[in-house]
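Researcher: Good morning. I'm working through a list of sequences from a screen, and I'd like to move beyond sequence-only analysis. For each chain I'm collecting a predicted structure so we can compare shapes side by side. This is the next one on the list. No need for commentary yet; just the structure.
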Amino acid sequence: MLQRTILRASRQAARRTPAFAPLRQQPLVTRTAATPAIRWYSDAPAPKEGEAAEKKEDASSDEATKLKEQVEKKDKEIVELKDKYLRSVADFRNLQERTKREIQGAKDFAIQRFARDLVESVDNLDRAIGTVPADKLKGDENQDLVALHDGIRMTENILMNTLKKHGLERFDPSMEGERFDPNIHEAVFQAPQPDKEDGSCFHTQQKGFKLNGRVLRPAKVGVVKNA
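Model: Good morning. Structure tokens for this chain:
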């Protein structure tokens, strides 16, 4: 009887007390204007204003230095390219001038060999004219000789005018009283001449020729030497 009573009492106690107590439900918290917002902060210390400014200035300085180096490099390249361009232009102009001179020289002295062979014939005409004495050209006794002499002189004048058109000219140093110049004269002998200056040409043994200003054949002359 007693056992039944104890068993009944224990069952009633188990019914009144649950095995596990229910968890207390937390009320939902809604954020309102009065509720402060939750913020997260870093544990690292905030940089100082001076350090931030220095870092910014360093970055700006590095960028300016790089830009300056790039500008200097471009300026150097421009100077080098300009120098190469000017050199190329100068070389091209020199080539043009040199080619022009060579072409002109080829034109001017194309007949050089022909002219050198021709001057011998001119010398023969000059000798033929000089062999006739001046007294025999006067009067009516030697009309044939006078006519021949005039014909030879006329032929020589026409020939010299034709050669002059092509740049070939004859010069006589003794007629102009030139001083001796080894570049255009050839001294054959020296002799005293009291009425003339030392070093002047007083006699022409063979006349000289120039082709477009260049000596084709020097004149053979006698030079005064009084000392």
